Batch of 2 targets.
Target 1
Amino acid sequence: MTTFHAAEVPGEAPPADSVHPRDSNVDTPTSIARLNDTIRGFVQNWGSVWVEGEITSWNNRGGHVFGRLKDVSADASIAFRVWSSTRQRMPADLAVGDHIVACVKPDYFSKTGDFSFTASAIRHVGLGDQLERLERLRAQLRREGLFDPARKKRLPFLPHRIGLITGENSDAEKDVRRNAELRWPHVRFRTRHVTVQGERCAPETVAALAALDADPEVDVIIIARGGGDPQTLMGFSDEKLVRAVAAASTPVVSAIGHENDHPLLDDVADLRASTPTDAAKRVVPDVAEQRAAIGQLRSRLTTRLTQRVTHDIAQLEQLRSRPVLRTPESLLTARAHEVYLLSSRGRDHVDRRLAAQQQRTAELRAALRALSPASTLARGYAIAHLADGTIIRDATAAPDGTPVTVTVESGRFAAISEGPLEGSTSPAGPADEPN
């Protein structure tokens, strides 16, 4: 490296800013700014390196991340930062405890003398292929409709018994039970303990789910775990487990990890709770809230009933105050005269019609009497007819010795014809009277 020195004045020490750090001594010291600039220039010549470690600190500040990365096999660590512009290109689920590899570039702040690293890429160790397969499976299940909100079952308002699948003596189990009992003291559980990470996680969880789903007393099932890095949560993205949850007839609540943890179980479950505590709060109603709600409903019901009864009493009093209800006989009195007039008119009408019909009947009776054969017989005429009933209209029809029946006004009698009389063949006139 070429070093340029300021012109030296005899008898005077050169300025500190002009002295290169490697040329400094007790008589000609260099400045702190020149030292920091030299170090910064040296550090900037370094390239980016990939390092492996465990995240021990992860703090978000205004979109930027400041953290520390610890060596997994030695007592060593570095500070790093992630600018907001590059944070979006990194996994969203990075958290303290994750085992990662990071591409970092050293940086030295000449103003403060602080040394740090800037990370431009971070990946989970060993998770690349698994996460890629997981995303492909997620897309396939979404196409099949397993994540469709329309197929998700509603949770019961107050479950008779809660099925709980979790690790034995785990904090998740304690959180679910404690918070559920605080909200509803008489809540009951049926618990199945399983391995919540590793190869045994998925098959044991599927078996526990099948047992609780077949139990008629279990109304809802909670699968709970206290969070973890994506590697430890892989069992809850197992395809057999996800399909078993989708096929279950009992509503299933997923309570795996925290907000940043997102296994496939969260997508297919009927309800996704952010934490085991959240699962207990969303499955069991709060008895205090329900009592308050019942009290409010009772108060509203009492108020409504009081208002209704008061209104009806006022309406009744208003009706009773009307004249027609104070003296109901006045209504009858007013109508009585009208009824009398109507009945009189009806009576007169009937009498007139009856008289007219009686006169008509008499006229018809007289006409009928005038046309009746009985009237003719009453005037002294008779009807003669042969034995077969034939009326004798011609004297020659009854020769001598013919039996004849004669009908008069009052009865009939038999006779024997002696034959026609002389001069009897001419018909009698209408004015002829019988002898």
Target 2
Amino acid sequence: MVILSDWLAAQLDKASAEPVYRQLLQLMQQAILTGQLAPGTKLPSSRLLAGDLGIARNTVLHVYDQLSAEGYVLSSTGSGTYVADTRPDSAAVGARPDATTRAVPEPNPRGDMSMRGQRLIDEAGVSARQWGAFMPGVPDVAEFPSRTWSRLQSRLWKSVNPELLTYAPGGGYRPLRRALSDYLRVARSVRCSPDQIIITTGIHQSIDLAVRLLADIGDRAWVEEPCYWGARSVLQASGIKLAPIPVDNEGLNPRESDLRHPPRIALVTPSHQYPLGMVMSLARRRTLLEYARQHKVWIIEDDYDSEFRYGSRPLASLQGLDDSDRVIYVGSLGKLLFPGLRMGYMVVPERLVDVFRTGVSELYREGQLIQQAVLAEFIMDGYLTSHVRRMRTLYGERRQLLIDAVTQRFGDALPVMGDEAGLHFVLGLPDHCDDRVVTAASYEAGVIVRPLASYYLGKQQRKGLLTGYACVAQENIAPAFATLARVIEEHAFGPKSKPRTRERAA
């Protein structure tokens, strides 16, 4: 007993900011776990230990109570407090796996991760930086009407309904679903009722939910080649086998060999192909819908930023043409408002409404009803429409400034692709250029772009950089592009073979 008291007294630091109670608890836990206090050892009484350590008896009592609650000690009235036997069960630890278990190899010899987990990390496309020139796919959050949002939010909090503070009902806040159904019918020609809308945290969760409910591990999915790396990662992590389908100027263009093997799911971006920007033609849309009807294929239509179209009205959705209820329409509000909102939606066929409502509640236990209520009022009061209209004009101006900077520096040596809509365009590079190397070098120089290479599953067909303009203030576009241009010239042309600009050519 004296040894324990002396050891504890030597370890306690009464001048420390850490409370004596916490120090004593951790020291005794350590002594028990390391075997310094063997199982069955009787601990000194609380009065005796408190006296030896010069601390309050209540402190020791609290420590003993906590040790007992966590299973470190056993207390018996009239007998005392004893160290419990917490050693691992030797029979369980030393048990040999049976022949079946021994026959299964380690899932990933390279480390502790699963094979699909390792693949997810190895092929991750996420960037350490999510803001600045020329980050693609990011809106200008500085232009968001935060005062309006704050006012709506404050009004709701002043007389908050308790139902807004619990889990979300299946599908989400009904007034928001009603507001979204009205908006989508007008803005995107989506045919839906409020009941068909499921509120999610964004495109990733929408795709994940659809895949979990409509496909099994090992099923095949058509994805556009190239396609958005995030959607590809969600599908692969769910155990789906990907079949890359090439795109041309009319969008998805399956080959005869592809058509002979119908997939379970086809993931498409028909209104603004990501990342190349082309629009799926009406003939291709009708062909895809008919193929899906005949072969029971589920189409996931990702309509992530089609409201931002320059020079023409936003195009109608693929879902609006679907007469067979084979299209799951998914969209995100992050691109329209601000990514940190983490709110998206999906429109599902009427016969699947109950399935998806149950699925989203069972898997994700949704909440954020206050935010959903704020968003509902934001939409119903007309703020969303006016904000999108204003940002479309602003982004159009920034897009043109960046295109002008490209033309002035490179003339027609580097093509600009997919600039008719969205928040980015692809700046083409010469075939001999490694766009991953250019991306890394520009990142070191303080400019963010994405390599087109990371969007291909198979052999890369084009070299280029995804170049975003939405989150770059007008006055920063020219100097930021000058930095990017120097990197491109160094890696794509070399110091002695810079392209002739229009001014030089003149």
